[in-house]
Amino acid sequence: MTTIPTVAFDDQKPGTSGLRKKTRVFMQPHYLENFVQAIFTAIGGARGKTFVLGGDGRYFNDRAVQVILRMAAANGASRVIVGQGGILSTPAASNLIRQRKTDGGIILSASHNPGGEDEDFGIKFNMPNGGPAPESITDAMYREASAIVSYEILEAQDVDLNALGETSLDGMAVEVVDSVADYAALMETLFDFDAIRAMFAGGFRMRFDAMCAVTGPYATEIIENRLGAAAGTVTHGTPMPDFGGMHPDPNPTWAHELMDEMMGPDAPDFGAASDGDGDRNMVVGRGIYVSPSDSLAVLAANAHLAKGYAKGIAGVARSMPTSAAVDRVAKDLGIEAFETPTGWKFFGNLLDAGRVTLCGEESFGTGSDHVREKDGLWAVLLWLNILAVRKQSVADILNEHWQKYGRNYYSRHDFEAVDKEKADEMVAALRGALADLPGRTMQGMAVAAADDFSYTDPVDGSTSAKQGIRVLFEDGSRIVMRLSGTGTQGATLRLYLERYAESGFDRDPQDALAPVIQAAHELADIAGHTGRTEPDVIT
Ligand code: G1P
Ligand code: ZN
Fold first, then answer.
1. Is the pTM here over 0.90, yes or no?
2. What domains can be seen in the chain, in order of their start residue?
3. Is the N end or the C end of the chain the one with fewer CB atoms within 10 Å?
């Protein structure tokens, strides 16, 4: 066991979802080690504790897992449960942390960011409830990492992570478990596999694009092997360290292969994709795209059709920038609806307290109280269960939904790799102008309210300020703007646009939102500040 002297890095501040940097930054001497030691110190030490460990298999995952095992042993941990080959999807890790009643877990992933030596890597800590560490803990990690002078590590050979079973690393048990088995078993408790199997047996066709990322083995086992979907239903199903050069972000831009097929002449009945670490999902019907905000609303309205939610749902939560479509369902069901800041960590307390059952974000994240992460495959299976029970097409289900609740036209525009200083200036200018906005009319819409979103957690009373600028119009339209907390290059400006319609449901969202888009550009002077007139990605 060795104590290694080190020097602090000044940039180890966790963002929306853990610490994310370029892979080469993580590969610098001591960089990973410093942060792992900071995690252990911030949670009160590792001595005697049990952790789960795994990642999405991206480049450097295998090396990082070995380093973390040696550091856990040197810090006195009693057991680490590792996914075979160092692989665990984020929801599967969350499940293991909970099922095995551990003291938390370390997840290696940069989610939907590309992987590779010149791309991105990330690390985050999840709490014993299975959810991402709250801000109080991530702040402590940052403090520890900023002041670190040494870390503990064992000198040892690599542990063989390919063979299932238990070995010892200087007294610490290393338990290698099947990456898929426990997760698949959990899914069987929530959904009616027989009904879905019957649907596939009846000729229902599906495409699941795993984008060469971690969900490949999970989707193949569950959708093809257990539910009987045709072989080849899962495409890009072999995880690769560089995701085969794909950008594993399940949205219409990056999952264009799937989109083309679903909009084409011989489209399957249902299409879905997942991201690098398996917590995101995109859902598409034959010829119709389902926006994540609509997906959340449809799932909330129909969850009772699946056995795991047959008793109904306690409440719903969505991140502030997510459309209010699900709020309408909650009102109809007579259940609570919560609006939280961006990031899954804000759902944890509500889920733990039993106040909400379903939650979601516009950024292709949906989940429930079965784990404490968003869960891509879970959302796909809930959709399949609903389709199997309702025996309707995705298009019919969506149209009926809009007929009943109206349609919240919605889109997000991302301006990527913007100069950080200019982006900050733009946000500061907008913040300064908020007080004068109410009463002003833009594009024929009167501003009802404007603020910088601040959240008080209803369970523990903690507050989070400056969580996004929002401008609310009297007709229910809305503009939200915030800077990304997961990017690794410059700043990414996210512009969220929403407009409610009581009729006329088949418009192109970009057309329906045109006045709101125009108003947003005028308001923030995006072109003036950043030089950008067009977004890089539209979802
Ligand atoms: C993005 C999404 C956010 C999500 C997070 C982690 O964060 O917008 O909803 O929780 O990734 O998947 P952002 O880059 O906007 O800070
Ligand atoms: Zn992810």
1. yes
2. 2-179 (3.40.120.10), 182-405 (3.40.120.10), 407-538 (3.30.310.50)
3. N
